[in-house]
Design brief:
There is one protein chain. With 308 residues, the protein is of the alpha+beta class. The chain has two domains: 143 residues, 2-Layer Sandwich (Alpha-Beta Plaits); 126 residues, Phage tail protein-like (STM4215-like), CATH 3.30.2000. The protein is built from five helices and 17 strands. The protein has a seven-stranded mixed beta sheet with strand order 3-4-5-8-7-6-10, covered by helices on one side. A hairpin with a 4-residue loop joins strand 16 and strand 17.
Length: 308
């Protein structure tokens, strides 16, 4: 699950390991709640430490699929301050894709950070408890579900078209992904999303025609590289005029637009309208009803249904 992947990622980072205290020999990074301070498995001092919680929810628009809250706890005696730990956590987590086994990819995006302070309750072995302070870091979790439908599948066609024309890009939910990965300028990612479809007035005997709306999410490290890739993809589709689907039929490019101000993770910068055809079902031929009898006056004969 996502919590296990995240824990392995953070505990495996050398910088975070050098900032946090340890519990049972591992960096103090916990899901939901840390053990009590009186636990003997803590290394002294017992701060700084980090805990986190994940809250997933259903959202048909896929704008936000959940939230992750990360709490950084520290004291005045801690070797690393919360701001240092928060900065490294944002560097590691924000913009990173997580691919749990058998599930769709999820991307974590930094939303905001808030400072807090907390006074511990009275401890029996000391007169005063140290004041604990820290930072709560909020991340949005965006799910990238598989978009494949039925043949001829326009999303499958767009994925294969992208692979053929832009081999250096990772196609989300089409290529195989590691458990933790992050798009870069050298290896950006793209995600084609099916926004909707409708029939149109172009019909024929063999094919039913549909107009589909698609969004292309181009993801890279820098704005400059995202814009460059977005422009190149849109121009290539417009130049070719069509995307060949997996059954060999064309999806014609009716309209393509670019919105550089759109969020690459939530909305997508490429707005593509394509027209594609689905083979029509053949009409059924109904058997003629049997006649009770048939008269053939010229032949002076009668054929009866019972054969007599």
């Amino acid at each position: 699950m996502l919590d296990g992947i995240l824990k392995d990622q953070i505990r495996g980072d050398a910088k975070i390991a050098g900032m946090l205290t340890t519990y049972k020999g591992n960096p103090a990074f916990f899901f939901q709640k840390a053990p009590q301070d009186s636990d003997r498995n803590w290394k002294k001092p017992t701060y700084p430490r980090v805990d986190y919680n994940i809250d997933m929810r259903y959202d048909p628009e896929r704008k936000v699929s959940g939230n992750m809250t990360v709490n950084v706890w520290s004291t005045a005696e801690s070797a690393a301050m919360p701001e240092e730990i928060e900065k490294r956590l944002v560097e590691l987590i924000s913009g990173t894709f997580y691919t749990p086994q058998g599930r769709d990819a999820v991307c974590a995006v930094w939303n905001s950070s808030e400072a807090f302070s907390y006074t511990q309750p009275f401890l029996a072995r000391q007169d005063t408890a140290p004041e604990v302070f820290g930072i709560t870091v909020f991340f949005d979790l965006l799910e990238f579900p598989e978009q494949l439908t039925t043949d001829p599948d326009p999303i499958q066609g767009l994925n294969e078209w992208t692979r053929a024309n832009f081999p250096g890009m990772t196609i989300i939910n089409h290529d195989k992904h590691p458990r933790v990965w992050k798009p870069t300028d050298e290896n950006p990612a793209i995600y084609w999303r099916f926004e909707g479809t409708a029939t149109n007035d172009r019909q024929s005997y063999a094919v039913n025609w549909y107009t589909g709306q698609f969004a292309g999410h181009v993801i890279a490290d820098t704005i400059a590289e995202r814009n460059r890739r977005t422009k190149a993809i849109a121009e290539r589709i417009q130049l070719e005029g069509e995307v060949v689907l997996m059954d060999g039929s064309p999806m014609f490019a009716k309209h393509i637009g670019i919105s550089h101000k759109s969020d690459s993770l939530r909305e997508g910068q490429i707005l593509f309208t394509g027209q594609y055809g689905v083979p029509a079902q053949r009409q059924k031929e109904y058997a003629q009803p049997p006649l009770n009898n048939a008269l053939f006056p010229n032949l002076k004969m009668e054929v009866r249904a019972d054969g007599k």
